[in-house]
Amino acid sequence: GLFVTDYFTRTPRKLSPFRSFASIELFHFHIPEDTVIAVWNLITFKEQGGTFGDQCPDRSITVYFRSGAPSVINPLHTHFPRDTAVPGSFALTLTWTLPNRTTGVFNVTSPLPGDWFLAAHLPKDEGKISVKGLYEECQYLFQPQLIVQRLVNIAVLYPGHVTEQSMAPHNRSCLYKVFVPSYTSRVLVEVLRCRGAEGCPLWLRVRAKAPPLHNSTTLDCREHTPCQLAQDLPFWQHWYYVLVEKHPGVPGTVSFQVTVQLTDCSRPSLARPPFLPSSASMNMPHSFGSAGGLALGDSPPPTSPNDTKHPVPIPVTSHAGERCWPVRPTLRNELDTFSVHFYIFFGPNVSVPPDRPAVFVINLLPVLDSGGVLNLELRLNVSSLCGENVTVFGCLNHEVPLTSSDNTSVTCETESLAGFLLSVNATASLSRLRIPYPQTGSWYLSLRSLCATEHGFEPCTNVTAEVYLRAYLSPCINDCGIYGQCKLLRTNNYLYAACECKAGWNGWGCTDNSEAFSYGFQLLSTLLLCLSNVMFVPPVAIAVRSHYLLEAAVYIFTMFFSTFYHACDQPGIVVFCIMEYDVLQFCDFLGSLMSVWVTVIAMARLQPIVKQASVLYLLGAMLLSMALQMDRHGLWNLLGPSLFALGIMAVAWTARTIRRRHCYPPTWKRWAFYLCPGALIAAAAVLLYAFVETEENYFYIHSIWHLLIAGSVGFLLPPRAKPSRRLGPLPRRKGCGYQLCVNEQEELGLVDPAVASINSICTS
């Protein structure tokens, strides 16, 4: 055949340590039909400070692959919520082969067409809280690339038609495909008139959606005559691929014919169901009466085989032959993103007759619906059982309904199909099923009622069970509970939702409490973070006593907003917010930086030097507000104002030292008992904040930070400035041979210089 190669790539993204699914990087690819091989080239490299991160440690990178929807991963081995089905996926761990770069290759032969999703993350770290910009962080970047090779012009088989083929000696196989429409109960592939050097040396392989593999359904035509391969309950609305492969070492040309037969269960001439009462045939509850004005015992008039109003049936395999049942559609009602309700006509109560199943279809849109959670709920109306021991079983299958007349065992799986089983009875009248990140397409729910006896399950007689059915799509499981937040995430044009847990809770729905914080621990951490701000009361008292009223107002502002910000910032249920979180955070950060600013400016004692020193206070407030609005967590938001204020203080102290020709502050007690201890306490607080604080010790390390910063302010705040003395008589300045007598009132600025006169000029 003729091959065409397609190439796809994605932009490199920075990987993060795994904490929840919200911290992974998701990549979306689309594999075209007729693809025979897909090769993912997984490129990973390190960066540090804009250059190659040769000194960065090697950290393993885990990549997950899944077709149809994102992978449901659980690297921390946490517990999933109850009634949650976990679809499988394939994981691959990349190791480093070079100091700053590594490449991994992942091949998939005959991949399923459609959407493919890759999820990548780093292993979980210790949760260290690093100050942004303090040092160059090691970044691990991941870039997947996809190369697909697909066949073009694959021969199409038409049902009921014979295709002749002659396989030359240098050819080993021939590939065909046939489209299977809806309501097909069986696909039969047959090889006819096979002639070769050694009989019929052919293998016949059949697979849905993609070309067959070595482990696909296979038949050896040498050992089976006629060479027929059947597929019961095939996937609807999909291509089936037929591979006719020659045995190795067979010489000469092999000629044969291929034909495909499809059993269509929607035609009454092929499988005609018995006429049933109209209300019962549509599985409507008794409370709605009969449809079309017919009583339950009435029968509709006979219809012709070509009548288009005949209900579309589905196949049911049984030993007695094939039978068909109607499929009831659902109405899709979109409320919001990943918030979709599926309503049943004449529902939500559904009648399940004893002699046939009730089947419903739920259609999930491609790409749009695969990022949420499919929820299904069954509730049995016990009063409708009439005292019988009835159990209603439900099978949820993807792309084809599965109902079986085998009453000895209840299963939702076959050799080629896998489904989910639900059951309700008089003892357990409620059953739920949650499927995170479901595959898109048609989901079929088949309900049937059976009675439990000593010999197993048997069909019930004259008992029609009534079931409340609810199906809906939600962003997260139970909205992540009270200890989680449901986040709507986006990767390129694909949306998906995931839970981000807090207060030590984990799991897909934040329901795993193995590491959860107790209520007492949450209350203790909240009280420590809030009450540690009371340490600002002594600096406020010192500032008021020293007549630093502006500084005292700033300290009160900081104490107030820091207290209520930490009361609102708690991850658990001990939370109290007096304002919006963003407002509290901004005021807390602004108060902290302004406290540092006004303290250092007060230490500079600029009033005698700069008569309008209050300009610096106002300028600092405006600049700090601007910086916080740009980036609240940046390192230079703290260091920039602090270093600038320290520079002003150093200039002021140096000027005083030069003018007085004595070190300033002049007393050693001021240095020994105030400045040095205050500086050491402030330095210890900064070191704890920058290098020791982690997510686990945050509540007490940050409380110590509050205590140390407030304590350092009490030490560093200068004493009250002494009142300026009244200027006395100025010393007489002597000139060359003369003693200049200067008017003292003019020197003090008490008289008009224009009318001032010199008292006397004295001769030396």
From TrEMBL:
Keyword Membrane annotated: yes
UniProtKB keywords: Cell membrane, Membrane, Transmembrane, Transmembrane helix
Domain of life (superkingdom): Eukaryota
Coiled-coil region(s): none
One Pfam family it belongs to: DUF3522
Domain EGF-like, chain residue ranges per copy: 499-510
TM regions (residue ranges): 516-536, 548-567, 573-597, 609-628, 634-655, 671-692, 698-717
Family matches, as PROSITE patterns: EGF_1, EGF_2
Subcellular location: Cell membrane
CC annotations in GO: plasma membrane
Protein's UniProt keywords contain Heme: no
Membrane topology of the entry: Multi-pass membrane protein
Annotated family: Belongs to the TMEM8 family.
Protein name: TMM8B protein
Protein source organism: Thryothorus ludovicianus
Species lineage: Eukaryota, Metazoa, Chordata, Craniata, Vertebrata
